[in-house]
Design brief:
Layout: E1 2-11, E2 17-23, E3 26-31, E4 37-43, E5 49-52, E6 54-59, H1 72-75, E7 81-91, H2 95-102, E8 108-114, H3 134-143, E9 148-155, H4 157-160, H5 166-177, E10 183-187, H6 194-199, E11 206-208, E12 219-220, E13 225-226, H7 228-235, E14 239-241, H8 251-260, H9 273-277, H10 284-294, H11 298-303, H12 307-312, E15 329-342, E16 348-362, E17 365-368
Parallel strand pairs: 1-4, 6-7, 7-8, 8-9, 9-10, 10-11, 11-14
Antiparallel strand pairs: 1-2, 2-3, 5-15, 12-13, 15-16, 16-17
C-alpha cells in the first residue's frame, strides 16, 4: 500500500519510536516502523520529536480589530501551532466576517463568541449590558456550528464597568441555553472579586489568566500561599488555563502553585500582534519554555497543548496521534541552550532547554518552520 505522506524515524516526547502514515489529510497508521512507501517522505533520523499538532486555545486573530488582533498564520502554522481558538475577539454581529476571513488561513481557526455582540471593539465591552443578546449568540452558534466552539466573557473592572457579577450570570444563562458549550472567563483586577467569579463557575469552565500576578489573583500576596477558594475551584475541576498575555502570567504565582501541587490544566498564549512582536509572549513555544523553567516536565507540557485543550473544547479528531485523527502534527526539537524568559511583570528566568518547531503539518500538508 502507498500513502500520501510517511513520517519516518520520529520519537514521541517520552522517547518512544514512532512512524506515521497519512492519507487524505487523516492519520491512517501509527507504528514503531512502517515499511510501505509514501508519495512524500519526512525522514527524521531519530533526532526530532513528533506530537499531535499544538493547540493554542487563547489567541486574538481577527485582523480587522484595533485593540487586540493578529493574523492566524503568524501565530499558528509559522509557530508550530496547527489549531488556534480566538478567545472572544468577535461577537455575534461580526463573527461571520471573521469566519469568512479565516477560511483563507492555513492554520485551523475556531472561535469563542464574545457574549457582547461586537466583541472587543472597545475595552469595556460588558459595561453596557444591552450589547448582550442571548438570541444573537444562539443565532451565531446555529449558523456556524463548526466554527464557534464556546463563549467568552471578560470579568475584570476595565471591562464590566459597574455591572459587578451580572455579566457572568448572563454568560452562564447563555451557556445553559446552548448545550453547555465551553465558557472561558477572563480574570483581572477587581471588581468583581475572584472568589465571587469562581463561585459562579462550573466544572469544565475555563478560567484563563490563572497565574496572573494581580492582587485579585489566586495568590495571597501577604502569605505567599494559594488562596483556599482557588483550591476549591481547582478541586471542582474548573480548567485553569495559562492565557499568558501582556499582563497575565507571573513566574512566582506559577512556581508557588506548583510547590503546593497545583498545575495549570492547559497552556495558552493570549497572543496578539503587540505582545508577539514586542513580548513578553512571542509565541506558544516560548510560553511552553516558561512552564518548563517553572518545573513542569516536557511530556505534561505537550499534553497541555494537545490532548487537554482538544478535550476541553470537544475536538473529537484532534489532540492525539491516532488512526482516524486529523493529520495535524507538530515536529520539533528540544535543544540545550540559553534564553532569558520574561513574565508579564518583568521578572526573568533563564531557560536551558529550548523547544523549536521545525515542521508543522496541517491536514496532511507540510510547512517548514
Amino acid at each position: 500500500m502507498s500513502y500520501d505522506l510517511i513520517i519516518k524515524n520520529g520519537k514521541t516526547i517520552t522517547g518512544q519510536p514512532i512512524e506515521i502514515a497519512i492519507n487524505a489529510g487523516e492519520i491512517v497508521k501509527v507504528a514503531d516502523e512502517i515499511n510501505e512507501k509514501g508519495e512524500e517522505l519526512i525522514e527524521l533520523n531519530g533526532d526530532a520529536y513528533v506530537s499531535a499538532g499544538w493547540i493554542d486555545d487563547h489567541v486574538h486573530c481577527f485582523e480587522k480589530m484595533t485593540l487586540y488582533y493578529d493574523f492566524p498564520d503568524e501565530i499558528g502554522v509559522k509557530k508550530g501551532v496547527t489549531t488556534v481558538i480566538d478567545a472572544g475577539t468577535t461577537g455575534a454581529e461580526n463573527i461571520h466576517e471573521f469566519y469568512d476571513l479565516v477560511k483563507k488561513a492555513k492554520t485551523n481557526v475556531y472561535a469563542l463568541v464574545n457574549i457582547s455582540k461586537w466583541g472587543i471593539v472597545e475595552q469595556d465591552e460588558l459595561a453596557d449590558l444591552s450589547k448582550v443578546k442571548e438570541e444573537l449568540v444562539h443565532k451565531a452558534l446555529t449558523e456556524l456550528p463548526d466554527f464557534v466552539v464556546g463563549f467568552k466573557a471578560r470579568m475584570s473592572k476595565t471591562v464590566i464597568g459597574d455591572n459587578g457579577i451580572r455579566p457572568l450570570e448572563m454568560a452562564k444563562k447563555i451557556q445553559k441555553a446552548n448545550n453547555g458549550l465551553p465558557l472561558m472567563i477572563h480574570i483581572g483586577s477587581a471588581p468583581p472579586k475572584l472568589d465571587e467569579i469562581l463561585a459562579h463557575m462550573s466544572k469544565g469552565d475555563i478560567l484563563t489568566h490563572c497565574f496572573n500576578g494581580k492582587p485579585n489573583g489566586i495568590l495571597n500576596q501577604a502569605t505567599s500561599q494559594i488562596k483556599d477558594f482557588a483550591w476549591a475551584a481547582y478541586d471542582k475541576e474548573i480548567v485553569f488555563d495559562i492565557g499568558h498575555g501582556t499582563d497575565s502570567f507571573n513566574f512566582e504565582v506559577a512556581e508557588t502553585a506548583l510547590k503546593e501541587g497545583m498545575k495549570a490544566t492547559s497552556i495558552s498564549t493570549d497572543i496578539y500582534i503587540r505582545n508577539r512582536e514586542k513580548g513578553p509572549v512571542h509565541d506558544l513555544a516560548t510560553t511552553m519554555e516558561k512552564l518548563r523553567v517553572v518545573g513542569y516536565d516536557w511530556p505534561e507540557i505537550i499534553e497541555k497543548v494537545t490532548s487537554v485543550p482538544a478535550g476541553n473544547f470537544h475536538f473529537e479528531t484532534k489532540g492525539h496521534l491516532k488512526e482516524g485523527y486529523d493529520a495535524d502534527i507538530t515536529i520539533f526539537t528540544i535543544e540545550t541552550g540559553q534564553k532569558t524568559l520574561t513574565d508579564s511583570n518583568g521578572f526573568k528566568r533563564e531557560a536551558t532547554e529550548l523547544i523549536k518547531p521545525v515542521k508543522t503539518i496541517i491536514g496532511g500538508t507540510v510547512y517548514d518552520n
